[in-house]
Amino acid sequence: xxxxxxxxxxxxxxxxxxxxxxxxIMLFVRMCGIGxxxxxxxxxxxxxxxxxxxxxxxxxxxxxxNLSLIDANAEFKTxxxxxxxxxxxxxxxxxxxxxxxVFKKPKFNLIMHGGEVLQRLKDEGRGCIVVSxxxxxxxxxxxxxxxxxxxxxxxxxxxxxxxxxxNSIKNARMGLSNVLPLKKGAKDIASIPSITKAGGSVCxxxxxKQHFGSEPVSLFGKQVKIGFTIQKIAIKHNIPIxxxxxxxxxxxxxxxxxxxxxxxxxxxxxxxxxxLATLTQQATQQIADIASKHIKHDPYQWFCLIHRLFGNPxxxxx
Length: 318
What we know:
By secondary structure, the chain is an alpha/beta fold. It has a domain at 89-305: Glycerol-3-phosphate (1)-acyltransferase (3-Layer(aba) Sandwich), CATH 3.40.1130. 50% of the residues lie in helices and 15% in strands. It contains eleven helices and nine strands. The strands form two sheets. Strands 1-9-8-2-5-3-4 form a seven-stranded mixed beta sheet, sandwiched between helices. The termini are far apart.
């Protein structure tokens, strides 16, 4: 009992320390600006990279393997991958610090393609499920939708173990009044039909295995398991599924983001109990096909590049 109390106290002390570091970084960004923050990130990466080198080496090998599946002719560039990750971190830092003021900053000059899709759904009084991958800066989408279309946006997220940091991140995402969280749990997910019926949107990332349901789809010629439960709810209740991808546009101003909003995915035939699984699979495959086109544009912005979505590299892969 005594040891359990001590272990709990140590865990809380650790979480408090992590939270204080997190808050210090956010304060630093506010005081010194994002340019200095980028330099600090790179310095920390190289300093701790030597300590964590064996683990880092494995992750980079995995990223090289995944890139070879996406584009067999591509040459993996470590610094380009690191820069993409740093740019995501700095964008998230600005969202956390500046909240609703973030879109007033020149760095967030965001070009939107397909905005008429969401406008049309709003005019019809229909909500939707917005799906994406961990690609580019997915954090911008629900915030931008509220700013542009005045939509009530809910995002499905996984809670952080450190509740102090989790609350800070959640509050940052709720920086705009109509951006609200849903936990990755059966109770919150069951509320999706009522949210969309009221004209709201639910944003979710599906490119990882999910504890509430994953199914295999073809991605870059490999069978991978990604989340399907949200699509199943959408098909069953006739809710439009809108694929959205927001990423750093490297074709010019490197601080500019492009957001692509695709036409809604709906069931191709009347839904019955017998064909629900097939129609869900078809919808999920459509999302994967759209995602693969964006990822090929710049694979380095896909953060699942360091995950085992395609399995482990063969032993002879260098």
